[in-house]
Design brief:
Number of helices: 17
Radius of gyration: 26 Å
Shape: elongated
Number of strands: 11
Order of helices and strands: EHEHEHEHHEHHEHHEEHHHHEHHEEHH
Strand content: 5-15%
Strand order of the largest sheet: 3-2-1-4-5-6
Oligomer: single chain
CATH class of the largest domain: Alpha Beta
Length: about 400
């Protein structure tokens, strides 16, 4: 290609984000990956409260270093008039405003799309909230686990017992909302290129997660029984899930069709006659008789080690996986072979950071430092025309 690799899709785009926790920071980090300048507005002295979640990364918080690389940190007390002047000038030169403040907070600050659009018609405004604008839940507080609960996710995860519900091990509702905000902003930028005007994006964590829940919802259509909680196994396909092996390890495997079932019986279990057993002759029958079939599979694997089982599964072209812990993922040979790790600077030293999953051969994503609180405040104010004395007075007043 003749196109230089240092030109990125969002070069020249400025994003101002009033963000905390995960959903909005995850969204804006994706924009920064593509070249956008992201100015993260934080509360003086405290900052994004995700900075204090833990100290697992050289004293920094694991959530924070994940979602905030390649950004600039500007501290502002938005309740002070002097800070309002800064924000107004920032937005005048910005392309996108993202916010996930408490319900109603942005509107009280005069930052609703309706108000901003009158004087900044090209500005794109993205509001991320738990339940969206309007409706009886509009002002209800929302955190990831609570949305997992409201969105039905907890009802289909965990084990089969009444007390065995389980949340996702990562912030799935926040991530869903962040990704829909990210794609919504990209589409709004494309639209602005055609119309010349900015638009309003309203992202609900609930609706983002419910979109992901459509399979179990349709499975339970018109009052039908929902998929049963099945732990790490698949609720409605079998065999699909974890199986213990004789050496004490576990293999995860999945069959999707009858051709694979026949291969599994013949080449993995070495019992081709099972393929014709009427109890197991179709997926729904295998699901109905899963406990009997599980015993047969476990018995077959009891004399084998993990490598032997995976060798059989690979030979039969049956999908399978090792059950990795976090260290196993850090050390994953596929990520290493594809050179997916880079080094990113933080205030506590260099850390490894995963390249964005959507690789593009035309450009390299930004992989720049995770900002310290307020690290770029004086620089940004200087760019806006604030002099040294004015900046010092704002520091004295606690506005920055």
């Amino acid at each position: 290609m003749s196109q230089p690799k240092d030109i990125r899709p969002l070069d020249g785009i400025t994003v101002v984000s009033l963000e905390h926790a995960i959903a909005a920071p995850f969204c804006t980090r994706q924009l920064a990956d593509l070249g956008a300048r992201v100015i993260k507005v934080e509360r003086p002295g405290v900052g994004d409260f995700a900075r204090g979640y833990d100290q697992r990364v050289n004293g920094l918080a694991s959530h924070f270093v994940w979602t905030n690389r390649s950004k600039e940190s500007l501290t502002l007390d938005l309740k002070q008039d002097a800070s309002s002047d800064v924000l107004e000038k920032l937005l005048a030169g910005a392309d996108v405003l993202v916010q996930n403040l408490a319900p109603g907070a942005a509107a009280r600050l005069g930052l609703s799309f309706e108000v901003l659009h009158q004087r900044l018609p090209r500005l794109i405004v993205c509001d991320i909230s738990g339940y969206g604008i309007g409706g009886p839940y509009e002002n209800k507080k929302a955190y990831d686990l609570l949305i997992q609960s409201e969105g039905g996710f907890l009802s289909v995860t965990g084990g089969p017992g009444a007390q065995e519900t389980a949340k996702a091990g990562c912030s799935i509702a926040d991530i869903a909302a962040g990704m829909y905000a990210y794609t919504g902003i990209l589409s709004a930028l494309l639209l602005r290129g055609r119309t010349g005007e900015g638009s309003h994006i309203d992202v609900s964590m609930l609706e983002s997660l419910v979109e992901w829940m459509n399979y179990p919802m349709y499975y339970a259509y018109e009052g039908a029984a929902p998929p049963p909680r099945a732990g790490a196994a698949h609720a409605t396909i079998y065999p699909y899930g974890p199986f213990p092996i004789g050496d004490g390890s576990t293999v995860m495997l999945g069959l999707q069709n009858e051709r694979e079932w026949q291969l599994f019986c013949a080449e993995v279990l070495l019992q081709p006659e099972l393929a014709q057993d009427p109890r197991f002759s179709a997926n729904f029958r295998r699901v109905e008789n899963r406990e009997v079939l599980r015993e047969l599979i476990v018995e077959s694997f009891a004399s084998l080690n993990l490598n032997a089982v995976i060798d059989r599964l690979e030979h039969a072209q049956i999908a399978n996986a090792r059950v990795n812990d976090m260290q196993g993922v850090w050390d994953h040979p596929q990520l290493r072979a594809r050179n997916r790790w880079r080094e990113v600077q933080t205030s506590a030293g260099v850390i490894p950071s995963l390249l964005p999953p959507a690789s593009n051969n035309a450009f390299d994503p930004r992989m720049e430092p995770v900002p310290a609180l307020g690290e770029h405040t004086e620089q940004i104010l200087g760019e806006l025309g604030w002099g040294v004395d004015r900046i010092r007075q704002m520091q004295i007043d606690g506005a920055i």
